[in-house]
Design a protein that fits this description.
By secondary structure, the protein is mostly helical. Helix content is 73%, strand content 0%. It is built from 17 helices and no strands. α1 packs antiparallel against α5, α1 packs parallel to α6 and α5 runs parallel beside α16. It is globular, with a radius of gyration of 22 Å. The termini are far apart.
Length: 399
């Protein structure tokens, strides 16, 4: 059937299943936390006790501003992501369900554009991106469907790839955005600030890859003003994220009140910490991503085409590994933190697949595609059945 199905139909089926799973996902966990104005100065951190007399629901944009100001100084620097979280828990989850499908669609096309710079959509590459996200992204329900998690991981990844796209297009075509303009500079400044001020692992990878693009343009004497401004602002955004006072306050609270949630203070930056992070974070994420390395390995072993393509693949693959290595040095390494690693690796893998595809037999590719499609449909059906049952249980609990 893969010969006869169109890329539009493949995308529609994928997004329809994704939308159904969004509808089945309840408001849960941190969604409730961000439904209220964050008041870190008066027991609002949800870790050191809650004062019920001081809980006020978010009811307007002013509440979100007040909430995120307090959040930045008492809990963490992911301001951009949590503005979206608080906005959607305020106006209603159904609006998020539709918006989340739109963002997933945007990410898919951004990944396709940055990897396969072709005007026409090739369904082989599209399917590889779709199934790469579905099978290889860690904690998929948490990072792409759950409201708080999706705003942190899916949405921020979309902003990161959107920012890097002009750098990539300029890498392939030196005449891209050759003439600087005020509008381009403003756009890259805003995009860079948001991409850097996203989440810690994703922001770090964006800075790293943008730096490689800037160095390459400088060496080719093709460094443009919009690249310089974009890189400066992505660094500024990342600094705002990393050095948020709330990050340090949260660590202090967690070490004191919930030491079991992270590596205990006396074991941080010891062999025990690295071993724990390797077992609970690095290894599960790496094994899940392993299939994405196959086209890259095959490319460098059998189909190395040009140095330019090789450097592009290595840049994004290195960023992926860098993400996992950085998280090894964190007091906690939840699997979901590896989401940016998968996204960046998927770019490298798709570029490599484009180069090796002519070497593969068409029947072999079609059979593999059909097998993967069947596994995806069966797996998705299982997910929907389980999530429908969970939703019914939670609905009964709400009553």
């Amino acid at each position: 059937f893969f010969e006869n199905i169109s890329w539009q139909m493949i995308l529609i089926i994928f997004l329809a299943i994704f939308f159904v799973r969004n509808l089945l996902m309840p408001v849960i966990a941190d969604d409730y936390s961000y439904a209220f104005i964050w008041d870190g100065a008066h027991w609002g951190n949800l870790i050191d006790g809650i004062n019920p007399d001081n809980l006020h629901r978010v009811e307007n944009f002013s509440d979100i501003f007040i909430s995120q100001w307090s959040h930045y100084f008492t809990w963490g620097g992911r301001t951009v992501a949590h503005i979206f979280v608080q906005f959607f828990v305020w106006i209603g989850k159904i609006f998020f369900d539709f918006a989340n499908v739109f963002v997933m669609t945007a990410l898919i096309f951004l990944l396709y554009k940055i990897s396969i710079n072709l005007r026409e959509i090739n369904k082989i590459f599209l399917l590889w991106i779709l199934l790469g996200i579905y099978f290889c992204a860690p904690s998929l329900a948490i990072t792409t469907i759950w409201l708080t998690g999706a705003c942190n991981y899916l949405w921020m990844s979309c902003f990161e790839i959107l920012f890097l796209l002009p750098f990539a297009l300029n890498y392939w075509n030196k005449n891209f955005w050759r003439k600087d303009s005020r509008l381009k500079i403003i756009l890259m400044a805003v995009a860079g600030l948001i991409a850097g001020w996203s989440i810690e692992p994703g922001g770090a990878l964006t800075v790293f890859v943008a730096f490689l693009f800037v160095i390459n343009s400088w060496r080719e004497k093709n460094l443009k003003s919009w690249q310089k401004i974009g890189f400066i602002f992505v660094c500024v955004g990342f600094a705002i994220l990393i050095f948020a006072p709330g990050n340090f306050h949260r660590m202090e609270l967690t070490n004191t009140l919930e030491p079991d949630e992270i590596i205990p203070p006396d074991e941080q930056f010891t062999l025990q910490m690295f071993l724990t992070n390797f077992v609970i974070g690095f290894l599960p994420v790496f094994l899940r991503e392993a299939i994405l390395f196959l086209p890259i390995i095959f490319y460098f072993a059998k189909a190395r085409t040009t140095e330019k393509i090789s450097k592009f693949i290595l840049a994004f693959a290195s960023a992926s590994i860098l993400c996992l290595l950085m998280m090894m040095c964190s007091p906690e390494f939840p699997e979901r933190a590896g989401f940016p690693s998968t996204i960046f690796l998927l770019i490298a893998s798709t570029v490599a697949l484009k180069e090796i595809l002519p070497m593969l037999k068409k029947n072999f590719v079609n059979i593999c595609a059909e097998i993967l499609c069947v596994i995806f449909l069966l797996s998705s059906t299982g997910c929907i059945l389980v999530e429908f049952d969970i939703k019914n249980q939670l609905d009964e609990r709400d009553k």
